[in-house]
Amino acid sequence: MTGERDRRAGTSPIPSVSALIRSKPGAASACSIPIVTRRLFVFDEPDRFVAGAVGQPGSRAFFLQALQGRAVVTVGLEKTQVGALAQRIGELLVAIGEAPQGIKSPAGKNELAEPMVELFRVGLLALGWDPDSASVTVEARPIEEDGEYPEVPDDDPDGPDLLRVRMSAAEAGRFATAAAALVQAGRPACPFCGEPLDPAGHFCVRMDGHPN
Questions:
Q1: pLDDT tens for residues 147-187?
Q2: Structure pTM?
Q3: β-strand 48-54 against 61-68: which pairing, if any?
């Protein structure tokens, strides 16, 4: 999760913050459909931008969703990517002196809207800060099978699909707070070894492999 990004759309590199969040190797589906026409989903101050999850703790599927009016765009990603994005946004806001003060995540903040159709699986997340508009930009790109994510201009018809969301520092703080709470709301930890507990229990190393 290293690199520098994003110089597009007027954004500037983030000081002392790792701006790239990649999916884990092997996360791409074994079956894929080549992109024929590039799709750019650009949201400027959307009505909602959330990280949400579907399923029970231990088997949840995670998503990013942007909503503006009747337009809804949903992309899938890993739990670790959600946590890393929340952390990077928090680090960015601290670095630029816009750290949120006492933000609370309102009830229902992580609820996903319908229709919920996963448009692509995220391979790369990029984070940027535009000092002129005092806004945070989040970009999501699909998984590339070769693991390479070169810079691609918006007008390149052969480039990958892209979700770009621009929001104020305050809204970015609210997003990060809610996303971090979502990640932490998973499986409870085993009181003996600290590993996550599955609904049916787990084999605890501190109990010589006996179920707990």
A1: 888 888 898 988 999 999 999 999 999 999 999 999 888 76
A2: 0.72
A3: antiparallel
Looking up tokens 């109990």, which residue turns up?
207
Decide the pairing of beta strands 135-142 and 118-130.
antiparallel
Q: Compute the half-sphere exposure of residue 97: CA atoms within 13 Å on the CB side of its CA.
A: 2
User: Omega of the bond prior to 46 within 30 degrees of 0, cis?
Assistant: no
User: Long-range contacts made by residues 43-47, C-beta under 8 angstroms, separation at least 24?
Assistant: 43/68, 43/73, 43/163, 43/164, 43/165, 43/166, 44/166, 45/166, 45/167, 45/168, 45/171, 46/165, 46/167
- Residue 115 is classified by DSSP as S
User: Domain-by-domain residue ranges, the chain?
Assistant: 8-207
In the chain, count H helices and then E strands.
2, 8
Whose tokens are 């609820």? That residue is 111
Amino acid at 4: E
Mind listing the pLDDT tens digit for each residue in 18-56? Answer: 345 555 444 444 444 454 578 999 999 999 999 999 998
CA-to-CA dists, residue 183 to 63, 84, 86, 103, 123, angstroms: 12, 10, 9, 17, 19
